[in-house]
Design goal:
By secondary structure, this protein is of the alpha/beta class. It is built from 10 helices and 10 strands.
Length: about 300
């Protein structure tokens, strides 16, 4: 069995953190040539290049970032071990790094993630927002623990990951009271020629909306298209147009001073947790998945233990 040289790993971790061999040398009180030798030995043993030069700094390769993240955990656990042996509380919370696809409504993301904060051992949450391809790439190299998305990972994306359905609901169209009052006719015909705000065209929910409008021969006036749902909602609350929301949001309408135009179950909003694990192991990810299924979407939770 091959054993990892933790001194080599620590030197690499320090160089990667500081961005230079010289600074690491000062921090570690070890000569620069000695550190460079240790780095070459680690790269040789792993069979991968970990650092490359960019200008005057050293930057990590993709494999380097994976090794660095493991180093983070290894050295943090080492400190926790020393604190425990010396009977000192470490105070180190469990870390959960979540990627949220930008089209997922922020309130949905907050509702899904919030149960992780109630775990007894304490959790530190790091949230990153972006497009699905960007976040799935970060998931693949273990920079993220889980990605929250409105679509499952496609078979065409070359990332080994698994979809965990959190739940689904219908779609409700809402508007400010003033705009809602001006709409004539029964829903959904009242949306014909009405100003609407829609998600961007490259999203699953937009494709479903367009298909539903076509099947009903409804031609709304598209007043705005948005990649970011929070911005779409802000324009909607300003009275710019009618906009769709997941039906689980309806309980917030009065609080947000919005009026329900109508609801359809034909346009389904689905939400997924995507992880590199088929069977979830991270306690915080298990907590948010189980709670979303039972409380937010009111479906029986799958076994994730």
């Amino acid at each position: 069995m091959e054993w990892l040289n933790y001194h080599h790993l620590y030197y690499f971790w320090t160089v990667a953190r500081t961005g230079s061999v010289r600074q690491a040398s000062q921090d570690l009180h070890v000569s620069s040539p000695a550190i460079s030798t240790q780095l070459r030995s680690l790269e040789h043993n792993l069979g991968e290049k970990l650092l490359v030069r960019s200008g005057r700094k050293l930057v990590m390769t993709e494999v380097g970032r994976v090794v660095f993240n493991y180093g983070d955990e290894i050295f943090a656990l080492g400190k926790e071990l020393m604190d425990t042996v010396k009977d000192r509380p470490s105070g180190r919370p469990l870390r959960l790094t979540v990627g949220v696809v930008d089209v997922v409504p922020k309130m949905i993301a907050q509702w899904i993630i919030e149960p992780a904060l109630r775990l007894r051992e304490g959790v530190r949450i790091v949230c990153r927002e972006g497009g699905p391809d960007q976040l799935l790439s970060q998931l693949a190299i273990h920079e993220l623990d889980v990605v929250l998305s409105d679509t499952p990972i496609s078979a065409s994306i070359k990332v080994k990951a698994y979809n965990h359905l959190l739940g689904e609901c219908g779609t409700t169209f809402v508007a400010t009271p003033k705009l809602a009052k001006s709409l004539k006719g029964d829903f959904p015909q009242s949306l014909h020629r009405a100003p609407v705000l829609l998600p961007a065209e490259n999203t699953a929910i937009r494709r479903n909306l367009d298909s539903w409008f076509d099947s009903r021969e409804i031609r709304p006036l598209v007043a705005g298209e948005f990649q970011d749902y929070a911005l779409l909602r802000a324009f909607g609350q300003a009275g710019t147009g009618v906009f769709p929301i997941p039906s689980v949001f309806e309980k917030q309408l009065k609080q947000d001073s919005l009026h329900r135009i109508g609801r359809t179950e034909e346009i389904r909003c689905r939400f997924f947790a995507i992880s590199v694990e088929r069977k979830l192991k991270h306690p915080a990810v298990i907590a948010i998945c189980d709670t979303a299924r039972r409380q937010l979407f009111h479906i029986e939770a799958e076994s994730t233990g």
